Amino acid sequence: MTKSTLIASASAVALLAITSCESTEEVTNPEEQVVEVQESMDDMAEMNEDDTYRVLLEEWTGPYGGVPPFDKVEVSMFQPALEAAIESAQAEIDAIASQTAAPTFDNTILAMEEAGGELDRVGTIYGIYASGLSSPDVQEVQREMAPKLAAFSDAIYQNKALYDRIEAIYNGDAYDALTPEQQRLVWDYYTDFTRAGAGLDDADKARVAEINQQLASLYTTFSNNLLHDEEAYVTWLTEDQISGLPESVVSAAESAAESRDNEGGKYAILNTRSSMDPFLTYSDNRELREEVWRTYYNRGDNGDAYDNNKVIADIMKLRAERSKILGYDNYASWSIEKAVAKTPDAAMELMMKVWPAAKAKVGEEVAAMQEVADAEGADITIAPWDYRYYAEKVRQADYDFDSEEVKQYLQLEKLREGMFWMAGELYGFEFKPVEDVPVFHEDVRVWEVLRDGKHVGLWYFDPYARSGKRSGAWMNAYRSQNNIDGFTTPIVSNNSNFVEGSPGEPILISWDDATTLFHEFGHALHGLNSNVTYPSLAGTAVPRDYVEFPSQVHEHWLPTPEILQRFALNVETGEPIPEELVEKIERAANARQGFDTTEYLASALVDMKLHTMTDFSDFDADTFERETLVELDMPEELPMRHRLPQFSHVFSGEGYAAGYYAYLWADTFSADAWEAFEEAGGPYDAETAAKFRKWILSVGNTIDPSEAYVEFRGHAPDTNALMRDRGFPVPGEATKDDGGSDN
C-alpha cells in the first residue's frame, strides 16, 4: 500500500468531499474502529446481494497498461467497494505486521508498497467523482465514508507491531546496505508513522484517532458548505446590465444562464472565480460590481446553515489538541516539519521579506487607479470591487494593453497544442489523441504520451465547468509511475472550469487563465517524467512547498515567442499575435503585481499565524481574520485571496493547512530556475532542460529536494530572483524598467 493511499484514506479524500455530515460517534481505540468498519460491511453485504461493485476493485484492464473502468461505474458501487477494499487492505497489513520473520526491507516496506491495490483503484475513481461529478448520491457516500476512511488510516498508522518493524529497519544495521532510494523510502515511512502517533500510549492513540475521525467529518462539512454557496448564489443580469462587458464575457454569461435553464434571466454571473473575475474587470455598473464581489467573498460566511465559522473553530481546536498530544508546540510546527522550509519561522521570514514590497506596490497601483477615476469624474474612493476594473483601465492607459484584445489570440485548444509542443521541445514528448479508453464524462478527452515512439503514459483533459464539479483548476494522478515490476506508466489529468461556448465556437481565455493552464500542465509533466522505483516516492509526491515549483516554472514558457508565434493565433484571421502586442504583454507583466502578491500573501500569512496559535477556547474566525489583517496593515482596497470561511486549501483537508506559503516558497525555486535557462541562452536550451528533467522532474522524492535543486542549479535558490521576477526592488540592484509610467 503506497503512502499516498494511506493519506487518501483520511484527509485527501476529505479534501475532495463535497457533502454535509454529522459528527461521528466516539471511538475508544483503533481496533474498535476496524470492528465498526467490519460490522458496517456485514450490513452492506446483506443489503447488496449482487457484487457488481467488485469491478471497481479489479486490476485495470485494456490498453496502455490498463485504464480506469469509467464505463462500468455506478455510484451505488462506491460504498460497498470502498468497504470491501478497506477489509482487503487491512488483511494485507495484518499479514505484514504479524510475520514471525525478522523485519527486512522486502518483507515489510516493499510489501506495504505492493499492498492495498484494491483501495488504490476504487479510491482513485471515488475521488474523481467527488471532485468532478458530485451528485447527491456521491455526497451521501462521502458523508458515510469520510470517518471510516480516517479510522482505517489511523488503524494502520497506530499499529504498534507494524511500527516496530519499520523502526527496526530504520535503526538496524542493514539500513546502510540499502540503496539511497530505499533508505529514503524507509525514512519516509518511519517519519510519517512517528508523526502520526505510532509511538504514543494507547490512551493518546485513541484520542488522536477520535480527533482524526471528527476532523474528517468537519472537512467534509466545510466543503459541502462552500460548494453550496458556489452553486446556490447567482447574479442574474438583464440586457441593460451588461454595459462594458466584452462579447466573450457576455457569451459566457449567456452560456452560464442556459446551463441553469435561464431560470433567472438571459445572463448569469456564477459565484466562481472564473465568472466573477472578468465581470469585476469590465462591468461599468459599480453597484453590480459590489454585489458580485460581496457574494463571492462572503461564501461560507452568510450566517446561515452553511456558515463555516463554527466549523473552522472546531477544526482548529482539534488540530491544536492533536498537535499537543503528538509533542509539537503548535499545528504549524507539525505540518512544516517534513517540508523544505522545515519551520514556521523560515516560512514567515520569506513572506515578510516580500510583504512590504508588495504593499508598497499596491499603494502605487491604487494611486494610479484613483487618478483615472478622478479624471473620469467618478467621484469615488477605490474600493475592493473597483480594483480589477480600474487596474484594467490603468493597464490600457499606461501600457496600451487591452486584456480583451489579447484574449482574441488565446484560444483554449490552440494553447493546449502549445503546451504539447513545449513538452516535446523540452522533454521529447509526443501527444497522440486516443478514443479507445472510457471516460467519466463526455467533456473528457484522452491523449497517449510517447517518447521516441514508446508509450510513456496517458493524459486526461477535463476543461469545462459543470454542476457538481469543484471550482478552480487542478492536476490528478490516476496512477503513479513505478518500477517495481517493470515500468508501470503514469496516468495523469488536468482539470479546469472554463465556460463551454456554443458547439464549434472557439473558447477564448484570459492571459491569467492561460498562465494557470500552463501551471497545471507543469504538474502533469512532473508526473509524466517520473522515473523512480517506488510509487510512494514518484512524481508529485514531494513536500508541499516544493511540489508547486515545477508547475510554477512552466508558467514562464507561455510568453516565449516560440509559443506565441505558433499558437497565439487570432480567432478570426488565424494570424499570430503581433510583436507589438507581445511587447505590451511583457511591459505589463507586473502591472498588477501588487494586487496579485498582496492578496495571496495575506491569505498565506493569516494561515500561518492561525496555525501557530495554541488557544482556541474562545475563537471566532471572522474576528481573527479581521484583527490579523489590521495587524499586518493590509491595504483596505483589496481582500485576501481566500477568506477563512472559503479557504478550502486549509479547511477542506490538511494539504495546505499551515502550508499556503508553499506557493511563494516554491516560486523562489521557480524564479531562480528560470534564470538558469536564461543564463544558458534561452528557454529551450537542451542541456538545461535535460538537467531539469533529470534532477527535478524524474527523481520524485527519492532524494532531498534541496539537494536535488543544488544538483540542477549548482547552488541553493537565490531569493532575490523572486523579487526580480515580480518587479520588486532588490537592495543594491537597479530596478528593471517595466516600460510603464511613474504612476
From TrEMBL:
What Gene Ontology terms describe what this protein does at the molecular function level? carboxypeptidase activity; metal ion binding; metalloendopeptidase activity
Disordered: annotated segments = 721-743
Domain Peptidase M3A/M3B catalytic, residue spans:
279-726
In the record's cofactor note, how is the cofactor described as bound? Answer: Binds 1 zinc ion.
Q: Which residues form the Oligopeptidase A N-terminal domain?
A: 85-205
In the UniProt record, the signal sequence range is 1-23
Q: Which EC number(s) does UniProt give?
A: 3.4.24.70
GO cellular component terms listed in the entry, alphabetical order = cytosol
Record protein name field: oligopeptidase A
Print the organism lineage: Bacteria, Pseudomonadati, Pseudomonadota, Alphaproteobacteria, Hyphomonadales
